[in-house]
Task: structure prediction
Amino acid sequence: MDDSRIIELFYARSEDAIAELSKKYGPYCLTVAKNILNNTEDAEECVNDAYLAVWNTVPPQKPDPLLSYLCRIVRNLAIMKYHGKTAKKRNSIYDVALEEIGDCLPSSRSVEDEAEANAVAELIDRFLGTLEKRDRIMFVRRYWHSDTISEIAALFKMSNNHVSVRLSRIRKELKKYLAKEGVSV
Result:
């Protein structure tokens, strides 16, 4: 079923909307949540909570594309759960990705820092626009979807080492780009 039809079901308040959303995007959303949480039960809970959030926001929202809207909700819920459950623990999958990208970004703490973080997000968007499609996808898959190096390597039919090297080079380019734009790291 296409996204517009699923959204119509939400607007009609049909419970089939959630079933169709789950059938079409459930496995992908579960993977995103599991990559962050490293726990199947918690990931399933986040995905179910995301379905409820979509139910509660559509209508009035009319998300386009639906997958991005749903994944953003899943990711945010998973990150909140991750921080709640692992305040003192280490989750190797998500922490490694955060450490990799962390050296390129300033941390945000105050309102002023939050405004700077938004400006940095815009700069990152612009930077991503300068990359070749493959590199952009690798970056987003690693640092937004929290895919493992192995998953990205399989997607692009490359070795793990090749993906690691590409991501390392992209991070270095990002760091230079941000420095050139006046962002201190």
